[in-house]
Predict the structure.
Amino acid sequence: MSHKVLYMDTQHPPLQTIQDIKRMMERSSRFISLSGWSGISAGICALGGAAAAYLRLNMHHKAVGGVVRYNRYNYDLGVESLSLMRDLVWIAAITFVAAFISAFFFTWIRSRRNGTPIWDRTVQRLAWNTLLPMIAGGLFILRGMQLNHYELVAPGCLIFYGLALVNASKYTLGEIRYLGYGQLVLGTINLWALSYGLYFWAAGFGILHIVYGALMWWKYERVSSN
Amino acid sequence: MKNPIENLNKIFDSRIRLGVMSILVVNEEVSFNDLKKMMDVTDGNLASHLVNLEENGYIKVHKGFIGRKTNTTYSITKAGEKAFKEHIEALENMIRGVR
């Protein structure tokens, strides 16, 4: 008996065994290679996009000489407004693609370093559960734009993205939930301050991403990169 | 005195068998290849441990095909879940006992 106790204590200390179990559970059910740099780079892309949109709106403001308001009371869909809309959609599309590619790049690097596959069951589950609220939100926003509710674009993006992140938190680093809460709070406040949409958008997609990314890098990657 | 380790399940003495159970308890169905990657073990080694768990009624084997390639997946049984839970409780009791 004493032999067995000794064996248990030296070979399988219970605390370490439980930690091993926890690690295996997490590793098999969550995608843990999400890099903090992905958050930082996506945030920088968002700030760049917001700045481009801001400049473009100012140009429009000078051209039409009125107050810059992209809200539903602005029905003057003349040539100026149409070209403004087209440019803003382009800026949004380029920002999204740049943010996605840069975020993917850093996470790909990290998952290679960790030796975890970039497209296994955990990633598929994560992708599906993130994309579902985002696709629903995207359609909602698109329809809103068709009905001239441009003022709902920014809060719509923030709220649906926030929900997507909270949903995603079950399938990747749990802390991403707090980034989601942040987006939800900003989006909700934005609903009652509609003319400041671009600022809320920049704060949520730009600053929150960078803060989150930096914190995650500090917590999980600082040690391993030294 | 009650022996603190008598509730520990001998089948889970092996790190590989314990690892397989940890993975299957949080995932509905996992393929042989995914298990192999996550555990970082060789085919033969993993296969023998899986047979052992199956013979004890802790896991179920599902043989399927993806195209022409065989795709074997594993899932946990009710008995397996119960045994795993009791094993963790025994480990927890040991930790409490030591403190």
